Amino acid sequence: MTSSPAQETADTLVRDHSVYSCVMGSRAFGLATEDSDTDVRGVFVAPTPLFWRFEKPPTHLDGPAPEQFSWELERFCELALRANPNVLEVLHSPLPLHVDDTGRELLSLRPAFLTRQALSTFAGYAASQRRKLDADVRQYGAPRWKHAMHLLRLLASGRDLLRTGELTLDVGADREELLAVKRGEVAWPRIERRLERLLAEATEAESTSPLPALPDRARVEDFLFRTRRRSALTYEGSQ
Question: 3-state SS of the chain?
């Protein structure tokens, strides 16, 4: 039995109102080892009456399970429209856990979010992570190898998205090479050269990418409006 809007808590919002959840992290990327965690990411729809109050529902929540994180639908769509790499990857996880009717419609909108803006967002995220790796090298003499592995993976994924118009998470044949990076078996200068080459290839791919320049914001907004309206009508019908 679900809670009424007045009784909603962080746990019930995720438990009772999730529309989509999936496994992310190394397991979704094809990089899992025996000690890998199971990271769960998801999307919940806060009941529309919660937005009629001064205190609005949360835009995101940790838990209730360990290694679990969820976004409220509107925030999730906002980030996806901006080509946020982490959110786009959630939409393309090969390991779904829960998908209801609203979740299926959200997944059907994946093409509406994929644009050539991925170059700036993937490259921007990579630049911020690269600065952290460089700081580790200066301070400790080596980067955090796991972070270096995931940065290589991210840039390759972004490059391939721009080339093909499709976002694929599983690293496939690159698995062993990336795991060697994680184990610290690849020299940092070699990784630096690989990062620079991937960024150059992504930049080159942008000019001929099959992706549109901008997302289909109107289509996404229509989906959000209908979802909010349906939630409001469900609440009114229960009174």
Answer: CCCCHHHCCHHHHHHHHEEEEEEECHHHHCCCCCCCCCEEEEEECCCHHHHHCCCCCCCEEECCCCCEEEEEHHHHHHHHHCCCHHHHHHHCCCCEEEECHHHHHHHHCHHHHCCCCHHHHHHHHHHHHHHHHHHHHHHHCCCCHHHHHHHHHHHHHHHHHHHHCCCCCCCHHHHHHHHHHHCCCCCHHHHHHHHHHHHHHHHHHHCCCCCCCCCCHHHHHHHHHHHHHHHHHHHHHCC
Where do the domains of the chain lie, and which CATH numbers do they carry? 5-114+216-237 (3.30.460), 118-206 (no CATH)
* pLDDT for the residue numbered 11: 85
Single pTM value for the model: 0.92
pLDDT digits (tens, 9 = 90+) for 108-133: 999 999 999 999 999 999 999 999 99
